[in-house]
Amino acid sequence: MTAGPIAPGLFTLAWPLVLGNLLQTLYNLADMFWVGRVSPEAVAAVSLMFPLSWMFVSTAMGVTAATIALVSQHVGAGNDRQADRIVAQTCLLATVVSVVLAVTGFLGRHWLLYWIGARGQVLVESLAYIEVILAALPLTFLFFAFRASLQGAGDTKTAMWLVAASAGLNIVIDPFLVLGWGPAPAMGTRGAAVATFISRLFAAAIGIYVLVRGDWGVQLHPRDLRPDPAILRRLVDVGYPATLDGWARSFAAVAMAALVARFGPVATAAYGIGVRLMSVSWTVSGAVGQATATGVGQNLGAGTPDRAHRVTIVATAATMALLAVAGGVVWLLPGAAVGAFIDDPAVIAEGVVFLRVIALSWAFFGGLMVLQGAFRGAGDTRIAMVLSLLSRWIFRIPLAAVLAFGTVTIPVIGLTYTGLNWGVVGLWWGYAAAAVVSFGIGLAWFLRGTWREGVLEGENGSDAAEADVVPIDDD
């Protein structure tokens, strides 16, 4: 990404990420599909795991967010040996954090599940599922470390193929373990979790092998696994805002769903279907944002911030143009889009209203996600986090509440306010307006150029300068 035409380079980086994200979605749907053949309680148990699973994934993304920025900038600067050290310390940090989370989660699993609403047989099924998923956490974190390391080096295809193989393995073994096909006993939800464990073990093992081989741009040297306090501090300092960002997103999704639920099951169903349709746009813009992070990081490392700026502008404009077209199609055919999921006339009618409002803002949702990717590639993960907080907690939730409801009292502080009382359509307009305003702020912040310095300045301990004189094959 430091030379040649920008658009083809971005496309080369982005399409495997898009496909990988879609495959990950398929990975998750497979468990739900086969568990649905067991019982409604089993489906409820797996569904209740989503908030906890997203918290774990957000933490893994935070631990490895700094890796993309640091590895890409060192690769761009030609400091391959220092990039290898970052990879090793990322694997070390990911292992330690995931083991602590797994042990803590296992000890508090009953309280966690009760807190999110699991009762009776659903609690029993949830326990069977979460106990195995917690054991798989270190494997999940190591795969994220592998993917972030290769992405920083400019390779997005290898991780995509590995996700494809892992998802395929999960899909194949799911019915054997869930329903008891062949010699395996029927294990229900625990079987789905065991299938996930096996597929993640496969992905993590191949990922570590790839890193140790070192044929894909970066290499994991066993001797680099000794704790390096300077690098670990930098990984945590750059990465923790990404973790907080993910947590803020998950809590905001719960808060928005709670607001929608006040208008009954029809609105809730329409919202759920609409958000699933929007998730396709998030898959695309999120992948382009990840590719932009790599492009920005490599160019900052190479000392070409102007090209990093152009990478971001090209990526943002292309993403917004694509999503504007997609949003236009959905705006013209909202009934067909909702009707593909459900045949209830009331839900379709409300879904049409939702899509007609939200589709107008799809391009702005995507543009903001790309800009956040640029900030992360520069190592400014705090700015990306602040933009998420602004978008969801400062604009979306308050604005939606003001537009949707009449007189509202906030219980904790006893504050009463009078809203516009538009009803559920007010929620939709608040959702859309927040995206437009947040994109405007993100673009203005990007154009200020404070991100141009990157995060290599001031590294101590094993410094970039030292990396130039240390042979890559020093093992």
From TrEMBL:
Organism superkingdom: Archaea
Transmembrane segments: 44-71, 92-114, 126-146, 158-179, 191-212, 311-333, 353-372, 393-416, 428-447
GO process terms (BP): monoatomic ion transport
GO molecular function: antiporter activity; xenobiotic transmembrane transporter activity
Cellular localisation: Cell membrane
GO cellular component, one term: plasma membrane
Membrane topology: Multi-pass membrane protein
Keywords, ordered alphabetically: Antiport, Cell membrane, Ion transport, Membrane, Transmembrane, Transmembrane helix, Transport
Classification via CDD domains: MATE_like_12
Protein name: Multidrug-efflux transporter
